[in-house]
Specification:
Helix 1 runs antiparallel to helix 4 and helix 2 packs antiparallel against helix 5. The chain contains eight helices and three strands; from the N terminus they run H-H-H-H-H-H-H-E-E-H-E. Helices cover 65% and strands 11% of the residues. The N and C termini lie far apart (52 Å). It folds into two domains: 178 residues, Up-down Bundle (Alpha-lytic protease prodomain-like); 70 residues, Cation efflux protein, cytoplasmic domain (Alpha-Beta Plaits, 2-Layer Sandwich).
Length: 271
């Protein structure tokens, strides 16, 4: 980051300055990602009965927000530079760009292997921005070195900002849905209710179904199940949990068994 920042001001290369700013955010983002991952391993306590798993989602939200702010800043600087092109020193820019590309390829490969985790995914997007920044610096320096094209620097920076906007949108959308306890992607509550009624013979009705995620890969579910035989309540719960785990990969569910109309909403099963 320090090398890119110094080289960016010395060479007047916007892509290096933007990438240095991005790397500063990455340091905080990766540190936050690591810290939240460590916290998520802590068990539950009296204040956080579900444990610290949501820290990963919160970290992903902060990372996504920082990506969005960075993309806005890069876009503004690129527009200013497009309106009034400035020369850069191509050779130092090329050397720093190659160094950054090698380092970021290694780091991105490490993080990309764990992309199923939203927290790690958001951190990987930061590094992807750095990787693209290094690649853009290489292209911009070559364009200026061989052809004298000053517009390439801000133009390539605009491409990077667009990719960062897309990445930030995806991370923010996923993390906000989890923080708002939205239904996990791919879950159809109507399908879950129908599957349970079809496969569990003891169930008369399924209602008050609520699904959310503790983290991106830990779905949770609660529901009310009406049965006719009180002696079969334990078997019904076991059967429902088995179906939820086998058909929908839901490991944690809370089942309320009812023999008559739902006491939470007498006579209505609209939920």
């Amino acid at each position: 980051m320090v090398i890119e920042l110094i080289a960016g001001f010395v060479t007047n290369a916007l892509v290096l300055i933007a990438d240095a700013g991005h790397m500063f955010l990455d340091s905080a983002a990766l540190g936050l990602a690591w810290w939240s991952a460590v916290l998520s391993q802590k068990g539950d306590d009296e204040k956080l009965s579900y444990g610290y798993h949501r820290m990963q989602v919160l970290a992903a939200f902060v990372n996504g927000l920082s990506l969005l702010i960075l993309a806005i800043w890069i876009t503004w600087e690129s527009l200013v530079r497009l309106a009034s092109p400035e020369s850069i020193l191509p050779l130092p820019t090329l050397i720093v760009g190659i160094m950054g590309l090698i380092i970021n390829l290694v780091v991105y490969r490490w993080l990309h292997n764990s992309s199923d985790n939203l927290n790690v995914k958001s951190a990987a997007l930061h590094v992807l921005g750095d990787l693209l920044g290094s690649f853009a610096a290489i292209l911009a320096s070559l364009a200026v070195l061989f052809f004298g094209w000053l517009y390439v620097d801000p133009a390539l920076t605009m491409v990077i900002s667009f990719i960062l906007f897309r990445g930030a949108y995806g991370v923010l959308k996923d993390s906000i849905m989890i923080l708002l306890e939205g239904v996990p992607p791919g879950f159809d509550l109507t399908e879950i209710k129908q599957t349970l009624k079809d496969q569990c013979r003891l169930v008369v009705d399924i209602h008050h179904v609520h699904a959310w995620s503790l983290t991106s890969n830990r779905p949770m579910l609660t529901l009310h199940a009406q049965i006719t035989d009180s002696d079969q309540s334990t078997i019904a719960v076991k059967s429902i949990k088995a179906i939820l785990k086998q058909e929908f990969q839901i490991d944690h569910s809370t089942i309320q068994i009812e023999l008559e109309d739902c006491p939470d909403e007498e006579g209505s099963h609209s939920h």
